[in-house]
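Morning, I've got a small favour to ask if you have a moment. I've dropped the whole record in just underneath, so have a look.
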Amino acid sequence: MKEDSLFSAIRETFKHGLIYGAGQILSRAIGFLLIPLYTNYLSPSEFGILSLLTITASIAQMLFSMGLNSALFRSYFDYEDDKNRAKVISTVFYITILSSTLLSFLGYFLSPYLINVILESNKFINYLRFVFFIASFKLIGQFTYSVYRVKILSKRYTLFSILFFTLRLILTILLVAVFKKGVWGVIIADFIISVLSSVILLCSIKEYIIRFFVKYEAIKTLSFGLPLVPQNLSGFVLASAASYFLKYFSTIATVGVYNIGYRLGMIFHVLLVFPLAMIWNPIMLSIKDKEYCDQYYSKALTYFVFIGFFIASLLSILSKDILHLIAKEPFWEAYRVVPFIAYSYLLLGVARILDVGIPIKRKTHYSAFAFIIAALLNLLLNWVLIPKYQMIGAALATFLSYFIVVGVEYPLNRILYKLSYEWRRISKIIFVGCFLYFLGNKVETGNTWSNIILKLIIILLYPAILMPLKFYEYKEKKKIIKIYKSLIRKLKSS
């Protein structure tokens, strides 16, 4: 019975993770289609400007979110009845509306001062004001999506994700490619969709919002969420500080090329880390009192690393050929940063799964400590590495910093909650993944499509090579065989 419950919980995680992932994969696949648009209709300098503005607004959004979305999950599961859960959702909603309004006002009035620091030119002031407005509306959208997640409304989440990203794609193409509005076209498209989506999304969850603002719940959620702000900001430093350093030590064009490579590497985040982040806390907290929870947490890490190394290696060895197909030559060098970014997000996903004791024991300041240490190291590494190694230095600084996150978070979680992980199996995954990555990088036929085909063949050997290394457990082999036979039957019947 325990084993059935364990695999049932794992299936539930994969089921909702795949649904969330499908929405994000399709949405971001649509967003990925914007890379050829950007690289063909914007210069590296223009894309560098857009990247710096977007990063600045995202930092503001992170500050004003106050960790409320994570706090919503923790407080929601303190109750079993719908009435108290509705009070939690409503209290967080009213705080979010207040925070969003404050961000809009401050963003508008502080833009004249900030624009001279970010881009050293006040001619982009309206760009910055609009990206702050976008960030304030996205705060509302984030809250709504958090309600979907806590209610495990994954299909509704996916439906709206695909809808709004599709609309954004169409509008961006029209404004940039047809009406030739450049950077301004990208910003206006994002603004229109952000306003539209926040209104529609709020209407879709009005049944869960009541006229209750509970002071006790507000204090409890803020005390949980606010310590996450330094952690989340530190996470943004890890992801984005390099762009500011590149602008200072190099050129705005280098920032643009680097961020194209970063976007390619972030596909790993979209395919795996983002779906995991959407479902991990609700599932992890909901089974914390079950007898099989420790085994579940342990196997979750193994399966994540197994899938993660496959995807990260695939992205890394294909990035050069992909850029040759979709981008103009000035952006081709972006492939050099992709492996660092993809494996950085693999480490971030590992850190999320290791993060069990901290949320269960409500010790969010521990996690904040880990990210702050990594962020400070990241700033130092960027300062040391970027002047000499440019984009590679920036990407390496990112990878090393995420490695520190894992190195600090693991012992902190172990202090709060003792868990044993399958390190022997995980070491086999790492060995095979690294071997295939280096083998794939040796492929060079002189033809882009031939390269892609050969590299795909190499990376598809990944699960098979693990077989003689005795990676798979007996029960896993049985389930693989069962799935294989089921697929064969379906193919024959069709």
